[in-house]
Structure formats: C-alpha cells, structure tokens
Amino acid sequence: MAQDKKVEQITSMEDDFAQWYTDICKKAELIDYSSVKGFMILRPYGYAIWENIQRIMDGEFKKTGHENVAMPALIPESLLKKEGELVNGFAPEVAWVTMGGSDKLEERLAFRPTSETMFCDHWHSVLQTYRQLPMLYNQWCSVIRWEKTTRPFLRSREFWWQEGHTIHETAEEAMAETEQQLNCYADFCRDALAMPVVKGRKTDKEKFAGAEATYTIESMMKDRKALQSGTSHYFGDKFSRAYDVTFTGRDNKLQYPFQTSWGTTTRLIGAVIMTHGDNNGLVLPPAIAPIQVVVIPVAAHKPGVLEAAAEIKTRLEAAGLRVKLDDSDNSPGWKFAEYEMKGVPVRVEIGPRDLEKGQCCLARRDTGEKSFVALDGLESQVQSLLTAVHDNLYAQAEKNLEDNTFDLNSWQEVKEMVETKGGFARTKWCGKLECELKMKELAGVSSRCMPLKQSGTEGVCPVCGEKCTTDIYWGVAY
Amino acid sequence: MAQDKKVEQITSMEDDFAQWYTDICKKAELIDYSSVKGFMILRPYGYAIWENIQRIMDGEFKKTGHENVAMPALIPESLLKKEGELVNGFAPEVAWVTMGGSDKLEERLAFRPTSETMFCDHWHSVLQTYRQLPMLYNQWCSVIRWEKTTRPFLRSREFWWQEGHTIHETAEEAMAETEQQLNCYADFCRDALAMPVVKGRKTDKEKFAGAEATYTIESMMKDRKALQSGTSHYFGDKFSRAYDVTFTGRDNKLQYPFQTSWGTTTRLIGAVIMTHGDNNGLVLPPAIAPIQVVVIPVAAHKPGVLEAAAEIKTRLEAAGLRVKLDDSDNSPGWKFAEYEMKGVPVRVEIGPRDLEKGQCCLARRDTGEKSFVALDGLESQVQSLLTAVHDNLYAQAEKNLEDNTFDLNSWQEVKEMVETKGGFARTKWCGKLECELKMKELAGVSSRCMPLKQSGTEGVCPVCGEKCTTDIYWGVAY
Q1: Res. B105: pLDDT tops 90
Q2: Labelling A238: which of A93, B457, B471, B474 has CA 20 to 30 A away?
Q3: Interface touch A1/B160, C-beta < 8 Å
Q4: Are A72 and B39 in contact (CB < 8 Å)?
Q5: Distance between CA A173 and CA A167 in Å, rounded?
Q6: Which of A3, A5, A35, A265 is best to mutate for the B interface (most B CBs within 10 A)?
Q7: In chain A, what is the greatest distance between 2 CA atoms, to the nearest angstrom?
Q8: Do A95 and B99 touch (CB under 8 A)?
C-alpha cells in the first residue's frame, strides 16, 4: 500500500557512499535479495530499466548485422577445458551441475560463466566456407560466477548480460569488429545513459582470460572510483585452433577464422545509480527511464483536475513518451518524494489554479527547477525538457570525470591522489608488469586502460622512471 | 556459402512424419544439436521466430498490467521442498548444482524447473498489505528438466519459456486471471500462429504438480496427434500457506493471497512446424515470420532489375514489413527452394519483362499460387496477400482439427480411431481416475482436457458405461 509505505530517508552519499548505493537499490525497488546467497532478484522497476537498455542496445547490434541466438546454459567440463587460459581464468568461480534427477552425471557440467566455448563448438559443427563469414552472433542471458563477496548489480553470483560472439575471415575484419563494438558501447553510454567513458586497451594483466587483446570502456562514479562498464575482446585464431573451427578459404585451403567477443551487463544499472544518483534517490537518464514523466494532480478532488491530469497523460503518451499518472489517494508531497526516489526525469503537477490559467508545472528531477508552461504545446515543452535533463546529466558526469582526472608523474603523487580525494591518475607507463604490480602495491590502484587517444608525448614511468610514451589510466575500481 | 550448399530434399511427411519434422528443424536452420546431450541450440533463424513470439506475447501481457522480473536461476533444495507436491512432481528431472568453484556447497541448488518457489520466497519478503495486490509478474528465461528422450522444441533438457506468476486478494480474482491468461494464449495462437486450439481443463491426473486446477490449450498437428501448447494454473492459497506469504487485509487481519501461474515455451515453434509445414519445408504464419517477404531478382544482370528489386524492398519495409532482398549469385531456382524451406510467406519475383510491364510476380508459400500485380500499389497487394496467407493457414488447420475430432461412445471406438487415422476422440467421462487409466491402457490415449464449452448433454462413460454429462477429449500426445 502506498500510504502505509513511507518514503524513508536514505543514507547520504557523503556519509557512506556504499550504504547510500545499497539504500537506493532497495528503496527505489530495483532489487531484492533472495534465499540464494549472493544472488539478486530484479524487481519490476529494475527489470524495466534493463528492458530499455536491452531494446536500445539490441537495435544497435541489429543495425550492424548481428543476429541473436540461444546457446545451452550448461557446458561440459571437457569442452570448457579445451582452451587452457580460459578455463584457468574461470575455473575458481564456476558452478557445477553434477546430478541430473537422481543420477550422478558421468561428466560434470558448468553453468556458463561465459560462452566462447559453446559458440566455438557450434561453429565447429556448422562452418564450412568463407561465404558463410562473418557470423555475427549475440545472446541475452544470465551467467554465473561464484564470487566471494557480492553487491547488487556490481558483483553478484548471477548477472544478466549480452555476450556477442563473432568469427571473421581475416584478422583485420575481426579487429575492426572489436573496435566497432567498443564504439557501440561508448556511444550507448553517452546517448542512452548520459555517461562519458574512457575508451582504451587493457594491459596483459587485466585482459580477459584467453584474449589476445581486451578493450574496455571505463567510467567514473560520483565517489571517483572506476567502473569497468563494457569490454570487447579480440581472440585472433586461438580459440578456432583449440576448438577446430575451420573453413575452406578463397584459396580453397582450410583456414581458421578470427574471433571476437564483447559484453555488457546489468552492472550498467549500477553505473547509472552511481553516476547520476543523489541524496533524494535515483536519477534516471530519460532514454532508459521506465517512467519518463509522472503526472501528479494537486487538489485532485477539485472539479476538472483529475480529468486534466488524465488528458495530459494521454497527450504525452501519444507523443511517444512513457508516462504514469498517479491518481492514488496519497498526498502530493508523498508522491513527489516517491518519484524522486525512483528517479523519474520530469514531473508534471496540475491543480485548480493551473487549470484556470491553462498551464501546468514542470519539475526537473536533476536540478529540481520548476517552471510553469502553457498546456498548449505541452508535448514539445516536455520533450525539450527531457533533452535538457539528458544533456545536463551528461555534462555533470563529464565534469566529474574531467575534474578528477589528474596528469601525474610519480607513484607518490598517485598515492596521494588516492588518499585524498581519489580519481583517475593519467601517467606514462613503461609497459612492464613489474611496474604495474608495484603501482598496485605502493599506491593502491589498478591499471584501468591505455586510452585509445594517446598523446604521443614522452615522459617517465611513475614507478621505474624509465623514459616512455604510453599513456595509461590508474584508479581504484569496483 | 550459398552455392556450395544444396537445398536438399527432406523426408516426406507421409513416409516418416518424425523424420520430416527433424529434417525441417535442421534444414530450415532453426536448431543445431550441441555437445551437451539433450540440449539444443537456437540458431539465428529459429531464435528470430522466438523473438517475434516474445514481442507479440509480451505486448499482450503488458496490456493487462503484467510486469517482467528476473529471478535467480538456482533454487535451494530446502526452498523447493517446502511444497510437497511440487517437489515430488519435479524432483526426478531436476539438475543439481553441488559445487561452487572448488568448494562443495553446503546445500545443493536446483537449476529452476519452474519458479513458483522463488516467486513465493520473494513475495514472502515484500508483500505487506492488500493495497499491493494484485502482483502480476512474468519472466522470460530458460528452465531445465532432465528428460530421458528429447526432440527439438518438443522435449529438450533446456527450453526457453515465459512463466507468469501472480497473487491476488481473492480466489475469484485469481480464477479470473487464470482464465484471462488461458484466453490470451488461445487468442495468440489464433492471431499470431494461425493455429486453432481446444481450451479446456486438465483432469486431476494430468494437472500441474501442486495446482488446484490446470487449464490448457490443446492443438492438433498434421499427424493428428495432440500438442499441449500452453497451460494456466490456479493454486488457491496452497503455496501461500506453504511459503508463509501473507498480507494485512481490508479487515486488518493477516490473510493468504491466491495464486496463479501460466506458461508457454519454445514448443510453440514445434507446433507451428507440425501445424503448417509441408514437404517443401517450413510454412510460417506472417505474424511471426522473420522474413515476411523475400524479393528475388530474375535475370539480375539485365539493366534496371537489381535497382527495381531494391526499390521494392525499400517500399515494403517502409510499409512496415520484414523484407529480405536476395541479390546473391545463386540461381533463382535455388533461391525459390531455399525460401520455401524457410517458410517465407510471400515471394516477390521481378525480371526484365516484368519491368517493361510495370509489374512483378507474387508467389504464396502456402498454396504456391502466383499472380502478377502492378508495381503501383504493391504495398497493399502484399499486405492483403499476407492476410490471405494467415487466413488460409488458419482455415486449413481448423479443417484438420474439425475433420479429425470424433464423437465416440466406447473405448473400442477410440481404440479403432487411434489404430486407423488418429485424431481427437470426444466422449463423455464419469470423472473416475480408474476409467481414465483404463482408457490409456485399452485405447492408448491420454485425456487432453475437459473443454470449457460443455455440451450439457447426457451420455455414458466409454469405459464403465455409467451415465454422465462431462465432455472430454482424448488423444495421442507429444
């Protein structure tokens, strides 16, 4: 019930960022914990955000010729083991099915931690000639990784994701696909999540188990920590060789295709919370908000008010917006707080005095600003306001990223940054694993990525002092 | 490659219906077998059909206020066991996770065979007052049931489905929901799959483990066997009591909500194959066809042909249709066979002579009829043809159902029907389990359902001869 349920205060982000985050997850009704330790339930409001993410992203994938498929959830151990690096990377966190009904299985089956092996197994069965290439596949599903410590959206034993898997005739085409999908993710973060990212390449230490190269988008949360928000991998022909995936090439000889994979997850919802949220709750970018506009009648018992509110809803829906009219018997004040908690981008208030004046009040979730607009032409006013909300959210996040990215020269400076306000440290790096490990040990940061935009200037490695040119980002990561 | 790949003949359905079915699954590229015994892979074309089914059905669910959620894939054994009938019904076919990483789990976890228990667990945690009711939830996911013998779409160890789960304040509301969703399924089968169904109630023997009542839609395949195509269950407050799901009612007392669940699966794709397919392959109803119209240029090297074909594609897409232009270098004859195998409802052919006359040729997949139509106004011609294809497919399937449903009076007549041509036997039934079991033993049929449309006439039970009024359907089922 609405009235029984209080919109409770949440912990302020300045007091306890982690608790603030968990409070939003629970109080905006995004998730619930379950009887299965480390697993989460996506409640209707949380899942509706994920549906919007899926719809937009899936549309982008299809524009570039990708097709969806569904692979088995369980992978035989022998199949998983054919590629040594992958299985070593994932073995410690695999959930194993060992019984079917009352029978012990002859071979245990892994609940997929990722599906490269299943796709290779399938391609081994269906690929024959270069004319079938490229094969551009994707699947939406959940995966399980047996994490020790878990947090909603950020790290849970099961999470929902998409995993793209493609094979190509040439290494160049596969590299181009890897890059295209990284850009697809970055554009999605900008246009749908109002979230700027740093695009870059992972170091060998941080790359995906079995990949030749891993590319990543890294975003900065309001607590100035890094969140890896999507990755795109280039495998060369390593898995093709391990799984005997071959095709007859243009030269009539048997060849191995070149492979990519790329993924984003429900973690993006965590990114949105920590990029835009505030002490009143969630703040959602309009593109993924389940409710873009909430209409709230004020003094709803007065003649004409409810009818006018209903008409506003009808008109805005006809303009293609996702609208909710809350005509429940809760007080307007309660409703304001409730939809602020849920991050609804725009609120429309209408009462008897507005009706007289032929106007209504629009309130923005991001800035709290209110404005009165004429009911005539309301649609375009709301559309503009939604665009303004998106743009402002992006600008704020970009400012946070820029203000808290520091060009530093020594590990001592990086350490000081971490211990004071946090942020991204941009330094040079000599390329040695040793220095990467020392940076972690001495300054408490992991390498986030070598940005695709390299400055080309010369500097020194902040650990060993060697002259070098490679730019790299460091930070404390989720 | 297209040219390397022959469109091979498939087994004729008259020679071997089971092999004909499997041939279509493979040669229309709907599925592939995998390295995991009893599991299937949904290939792009098969998954695209499922995506269309999902999109349409999900839209219908949302119109009646249902919301999607995501529940954990794994269920603790103790949770599963709280409701005795359910666990007894499913225990023999559950896949058990017993290891997480290298650690043996303290309690084994079932890969969900169905999720009533998880929904109850969640409701136990979030439900407080009658004002929160009804909760109308659904999830799209896969489930695992460890079947001994498997067939693509019809019976496999993993399948994809939607499972709706709802709770209500009163028994009446829950019963109304059960009925509404059964009707939703029947309407979907008629409007999207061009498939008539018999709506009815299952006998106690055939109902879902733990349900108070199970309703079903039963369809008849071209081999006159029955396919259970969707079910809707009413649970009363049995699970609520077992899982301690309670709310404060209008009378301020603690009450148990009344519950339903309802599901349809990728089995519907099997139903479509066996309802509409023929010896040239798949025949898809337009509403769920990934490609509704294929455009094939004839003598494509002649001036203007390819351009005209491309323009037709553009125009038909602008009219909202799903269109593929096949401008590959395969012969038109090969292409005709290929898209017949894939069940594309309408083919547009255009060659130099058509161009001269300002026309093109339309060929229907269902009847093979060809007609020449003017390029002007092509959109409406194609739209009408797609409607005609749908209507004809439905009419054919309805004729098959009606022609092969027999009103019979004794088990001997039912046995004779089964041994000659098959079909549905409609008889009276006294309601005794004993007679139902004897019918199976003596005539080889299972009860399909007691139709919602009861004639009300009196007759005799075909087994014991007792006077009774209940109508019931019998058949050999998949």
Answers
A1: yes
A2: A93
A3: no
A4: yes
A5: 9
A6: A35
A7: 81
A8: yes
Region of poorest pLDDT, from A90-104, B194-208, B287-301:
A90-104
Task: Identify the CATH number of the domain in which residue B409 sits.
Answer: 3.30.110.30
**What is the signed CA dihedral for A467, A473, A476, A478, rounded to 10 degrees?**
-140
CATH of the domain at A358: 3.40.50.800
Q: Which residue of A has its CA nearest to B3?
A: A131
B392-433 pLDDT per residue, tens:
999 999 999 999 999 999 999 999 999 998 999 999 999 999
Query: Does residue A66 belong to the interface with chain B, where contact is any CB pair within 8 Å?
Result: no
User: Is pLDDT larger for residue B7 or for residue B287?
Assistant: B287
| pLDDT exceeds cutoff 50 at A197 | yes
Q: Minimal CA–CA distance to B113: which of B209, B206, B237, B232?
A: B209
Tell me the C-alpha distance between B169 and A417, whole Å.
57
Tell me: pLDDT of B246 over 50: yes
Q: Give, in order, the Cα–Cα distances in Å from B141 to each of A31, A122, A138, B158.
A: 18, 21, 16, 10
ipTM above 0.90, yes or no: yes
Say whether both B205 and B108 belong to one domain: yes
Residue B158: list chain A partners with CB under 8 A.
72-74
* Res B2 pLDDT > 50: no
Least Cα distance to B50 among B164, B136, B141 occurs for: B141
Chains A and B: how many Cβ contacts under 8 Å? 182
Q: Give me the domain span that covers residue B452.
A: 405-475
Closest approach of chain A CAs to the CA of B432, in angstroms?
31
In a domain, A132, yes or no: yes
Contacts of A100 in chain B (CB under 8 A): 93-96, 146, 157
pLDDT digits (tens, 9 = 90+) for A379-389: 999 999 999 99
> Given an 8 Å threshold on Cβ–Cβ distance, is B125 in contact with A32?
yes
| pLDDT confidence bin for B4, thresholds 50/70/90 | very low
The packing angle between helices B267-276 and B44-63, to 10°, is: 110
Residue A331 placed within a domain: yes
